[in-house]
Amino acid sequence: MKITAARVIVTCPGRNFVTLRIDTDQGLHGLGDATLNGRELAVAAYLTEHVIPCLIGRDAQQIEDIWQYLYRGAYWRRGPVTMCAIAAVDTALWDIKAKACGQPLYQLLGGRSRTGVLAYGHANGRDVEETADEVARYLELGYRAVRAQCGVPGLASTYGVSADKLYYEPAAADLPVENLWSSEKYMDHVPKLFERLRERFGFGPHLLHDVHHRLTPIEAARVGKALEPYRLFWLEDAVPAENPEAFRIVRQHTVTPLALGEVFNTLWDCRTLLAEQLIDYIRTTVVHAGGLTHLRRIADFAAVHHVRTGCHGATDLSPVCMGAALHFDLWVPNFGIQEYMRHTAETDAVFPHAWHFEDGCLHPGEAIGHGVDIDEKLAAKYPYRRAYLPVNRLEDGTLWNW
């Protein structure tokens, strides 16, 4: 089965998405997500100028060989742009292979390991009570796991808190927004949020929280220890991910479960964290970690070290990525949870899909392939718009991690 054509589709139905379509001489096509928030056109150019010319004429069924060709053959390996491009090709090829077999993608991975994929939603508010009300709303929607974020007194804005409670989108049009941050104010406030949530909802719902790479190791250890009485499902991205050894300090001081890895691109990025069992959940996802082929390797290595998966699932991952991730989640033996940020109606219309949410779980559906398509005529009505994620500064003006 030869690859005869491939093209990149950039669309912005409320936010930017980059999609790769691969066509074959047997009339089958596959889709892959190549979205990299704030750097979308870099991946689009990488695919168009450097990857697609190398795909034409290759056997679409040779997924492993093509993955190795794009990874080893580039010499300049790894990095988010390269790995997003590889992921798009890999996802599209798995889509094609499943369609050729007439099966939903999870069957090719080894079949289902569970009946549904536990998912968590995002509740946020300007203060503790507003966040608690939003947690209540998500529980009413059927969620069994909810990530809770809250405004911090003395800070005008902070990560995870937005006016739109159901379709949170941090990227802003044109140039980056600048936020202010104080670790001290945050550390004093966040235990009060979870004290209130457990007081109101008890210990039935799973509660999660994202620090978003903002603390030092000893600060993260202090927060993790302070949150122990509230039994979080996980504390996410407590420390910047570049230095995995930092988690040795955090691990020494708290038994709050730790999650990390949404910014990781390869197994090599998370090897130390997994091998030393410094985290409990690995957050790498299909589009940023080289596709299903490489994500399976990360998951297998994690399983050896008692680490479960918790794939990133923000709105900057298109429904194509979510569809592929859900087939992966349904199969992977060491599954933990799947992040689920709902896309807007405009996005869902551009990307019709077979997956659905029911009773706290996501279900990929039984459509052949990964079950997600793209309406190209509708996509063309939403041209690319430049947008960036925010940047963060301390109160004295020092640039900090957003």
Characterize this entry briefly.
The protein is of the alpha/beta class and 402 residues long. It is built from 13 helices and 18 strands.
Structure description:
The protein is of the alpha/beta class and 402 residues long. The protein folds into two domains: 3-104, Enolase-like, N-terminal domain (Enolase-like, domain 1, 2-Layer Sandwich); 109-369, Enolase-like C-terminal domain (TIM Barrel, Alpha-Beta Barrel), CATH 3.20.20. Helix content is 37%, strand content 18%. The strands form four sheets. Strands 4, 5, 8, 9, 10, 11, 12, 13, 14 and 15 form a ten-stranded mixed sheet that branches. It has a three-stranded antiparallel sheet with strand order 1-2-3. Strand 1 (3-11) and strand 2 (17-24) form a beta hairpin. The chain is globular and about 60 Å long. The mean pLDDT is 96.
